[in-house]
Amino acid sequence: MLTMSILLKLLFQLVSLLALISSTIVSANPYNRGRLGLSGGIFLQGDQTKSTKSSPHTNPETPKKDFEIFFYNQTLDHFNYKPESYTTFPQRYVINTKYWGGAKENAPIFVYLGAEAPLIKNETANMTGALLTDSAPRFKALLIYIEHRFYGKSVPFGSFENAMKNATLRGYFNSAQAIADYATVITYVKEKLSAPLSPVIVIGGSYGGMLATWLRLRYPHVALGALASSAPVVNFHGLLSYNGYRTIVSKDYKEVSKRCYRTIKKSWSKIDTVALRPNGLSILSQRFKTCSRINGSEELKNYLLEMYEVAAQYNAPPKYPVTVICGAIDAALKKTDILGRIFAGVVAIKNNQTCYDTRPDATYSETNKGYNWQTCSEMVQPFGAERDTMFQIDPTDNVVNFTKDCIDTYGVPPRLHWATTYFGGKDIGFVLQRFASNIIFSNGLRDPYSVGGVLKDISDTIVAISTINGSHCLDIMGARQTDPDWLVQQRQRELDVIEGWIRKYYVDLLSYKK
Which tens digits make up the pLDDT trace of 137-171? Predict the structure, then answer.
């Protein structure tokens, strides 16, 4: 009887798992709603070699000296108790113990929260130079980097493509599950290192900064504090105008060159006019040296739109991409027509290539595919353009059309207000000052996503650290000799604030032990 009971239980679990894997399949067509992520999207680059160390939960690989890769058997669903919820998948994380003062000293732990990209790109890793490694000696900190579920090698049932096609499995791909993953890995590592009292600071950029904020709010017993760089925590449907992002993009170009701004603004209608001519698409393809004949003017315009937006978002020293583009456009003023000037900007920022691939799927990466799903499910962020920008009027904050696109692509409508219902966002200053603490919201005001960031101090312990000339996530990138003083000072202030949190924690801990 006992044997039959066990067999029935195993059979039920197997059926549940098969149902999970074989759920409805839908296509994954792109739906572009803006860009998030760090410049380059990756902290890790360099050669990777095998490690000789072992662990009960992993097959470790060493990406570079001082860093070790591990895999944690992560729970698929943290919020249900159905048999299939207990399914596990390998979640990748990286540890650097070089500077750690150790568990006996309760030395701090800095945790980088991976976002919408693989933690390690092209199986290579090089974690030197990032803010975490730069600051680790000062704090004697242990460094942990955790990959977001469904990206890189942290994909349930192995294949990202298969996971994204599986409607049921895709349902576990969300921010609440992700921060529960992080809390679980952090708790596990602290337990294995016998470091229960080591304070944890979580750090993230862009979407990762949003996750850092939310982890601190949802799991204050896990994280002492959070550094949220370029985190658009209020950039959600119903909280902001859809015009904000592209207003700042336009402002960035106008500040560099009003002539460049006007040229770009006029170019859209010129492209449309040429496209309507006989052989107009062929003419545009020749003028812009596209790798294949464009299918319509929208293909070329979207290619240019993304180029302008990315340049503004990551308009960082020493190169300043917006200046590069505008310098080339203005320099070609007397040499060619408006289309030629725009193409000069393309060549300047993308280098002189044999051809330029303008196809929408040419750069459609894992990040695009994954975050498009997240945008269609819960991260509903408004994007569009009005007359006061350098772009064509584009009221894409059309909920009906957006919802239809998401249903056509994924079979489900977006939950427009779920993120702000679950995590908050409305009246964020008033709400957080009443209960929250120990969060740094850092922003560069040239970053278009700063429109959705926290730009004013909320309390003594929830502070906004902004720079007029800063760009997206620049402060948590590695220090360079060419860094301007304002960037050095921004990072220094952030670390001083974190040091204050940790110092107070040790005082409180000593008092608690008495």
Answer: 999 999 999 999 999 999 998 789 888 989 999 99
Q: Which CATH code fits 23-236+415-514?
A: 3.40.50.1820
Which CATH number applies to 244-350?
Answer: 1.20.120.980
pLDDT at 381: 85
Q: How far apart are CA 73 and CA 187, in angstroms?
A: 13
Rounded to whole angstroms, the Cα distance separating 250 from 388 reads 8
DSSP code at position 450:
G
State both tokens at 286: 């020749």
| C-alpha separations of 200 from 232, 249, 361, 498 in Å | 23, 35, 40, 10
Full DSSP string of 414-448:
--TTHHHHHT-BTBHHHHHTTT---EEEEEETTSG
Identify whether the C-beta of residue 506 lies closer than 8 Å to the C-beta of residue 101.
no
Which amino acid is residue 343, in one-letter code?
Answer: F
pLDDT tens sequence across 377-410: 999 987 777 778 999 987 655 788 889 999 999 9
Give phi and psi for 479, each to the nearest 5: -70, 145
Residue 12 pLDDT grade (very low, low, confident, very high; cuts 50, 70, 90): very low
Output the DSSP codes for 35-75. Answer: --S-TTS-SB-S--EE----BTTB--EEEETTEEEEEEEEE
Which residues touch 102 (CB under 8 Å, ≥6 apart)?
Answer: 195
Distance CA 12, CA 492 (A): 56
Query: In this structure, are residues 451 and 232 in contact, taking their beta carbons and an 8 Å threshold?
Result: yes
Contact 241, 447 (CB under 8 A): no
Give the type of residue at 499.
E
Residue intervals in the chain for CATH 3.40.50.1820:
23-236+415-514
Report CA dihedral (336, 340, 345, 349) to the nearest 10 degrees: -120
The most confident of 117-121, 131-135, 342-346, by mean pLDDT? 342-346
DSSP string, 129-169: TSHHHHHHHHHT-EEEEEPPTTSTT--TTS-HHHHHHBHHH
- Where in the sequence of the chain do the CATH 1.20.120.980 domains occur? 244-350
